[in-house]
Amino acid sequence: MSTTYSYPVIPSKLNIHDQDLKNNREKWAPVLDRFETALQDVSNEGTAASLARHQSRGQLLLLKVNRMLEIAFENDLPLISLVQSAGVFLPQQFRVFHKGGQLFRDLAVRSLHGMPSCAVVFGSSTAGGAYHPALSDYTIFVAKQAQTFLAGPPLVKMATGEVIGAEELGGAEIHATRTGLADQIASDESRLSLPESTLPAPPRYPIEDLLSLVNPDIRKAFDMEEVVLRLVDDSRLSIFKPKYGPNMLTAWAHIMGFPVGIVANQISVINPNEAAKAAQFIRLCNQE
User: How confident is the model at residue 47 (pLDDT cuts 50, 70, 90)?
Assistant: First the structure.
């Protein structure tokens, strides 16, 4: 697949065979040799130093993440997190829990200030690893790969005696249909790419169909998705939580090229799941 870049290609005028350039290369050779030797010495540090460095890595990781969140907050930037985590190393939990707590606090503060955060869950995320998608504004799960739970199947078996698989306990389908944590499910990682921008386009279906779709008796329900498909550009929708609260349609689309959020109830009664779904969707629309 070819890729088009907006920057032009600048041709090089360097003559690599010039004698002066060859002399420069020869002079740099011993310097590079000394550098390679120094790198080798560093990599051969003693086991005590290696152990201490390994034990501090959990702290360094959280410090990096917290600093990134700080920069994003100061510059009003959205946050996209790629999540797959087993939580903290419990024997060292006293070193990282306060830093991990700051991460979760910052996610909540971002949401309060209208700065969107998105978590893409690629694999098993347990305990602290489950808090990250739960505190993010928008979550995408990769089907048959992503699982999120506070305790995995081995701990469930040890505590209750129940034998259950990871997918049944906290897989993408469970969170899309039962808990509502998964806002979207990607069939595989290749489906996670962003859609291309499109120009305004008329709906693919005739708007006159609405006269047939909508009953003159307004007390009779009709399919709101079919209505929306005859109103939005190219009849394209990105449906939010399609499997959770199915009687409430929530979707992003474009009308005359302008992005819009759509909320439409399919039946006259709004149930708790539908109400929670609509409230979250409206909050997301206000953040964008």
Answer: low
- Cα distances (angstroms) measured from residue 189 to each of 3, 9, 119: 20, 32, 14
**How would residue 1 be classed by pLDDT, with cut points 50, 70 and 90?**
very low
**CA distances to 16, 17, 27, 96, 220 from 24, in Å:** 11, 12, 5, 49, 84
Stated pTM of the model: 0.67
CA pair distance 42, 39, nearest whole angstrom: 5
Structure tokens at 142: 């990769």
In 3D space, the residue among 193, 196, 199 whose CA is nearest the CA of residue 233 turns out to be: 199
How crowded is residue 22: how many other Cβ atoms within 10 Å of its Cβ? 11
* Strands 117-121, 138-142: pairing kind: parallel
Calculate ∠ Cα 101-104-110, nearest 5°: 135
Each residue's pLDDT tens digit, 214-249: 888 878 888 889 999 999 998 888 899 999 999 999
Rounded Cα distance between 145 and 158, Å, is: 24
Q: Where are the beta strands (DSSP E) in the chain?
A: 79-83, 117-121, 124-126, 138-142, 147-149, 184-186, 238-239, 248-255, 258-265
C-alpha torsion angle, residues 75, 108, 97, 148 (rounded to 10): -110
CB 248 within 8 A of CB 263: yes
Token pair of 49 as six digits: 């130093």
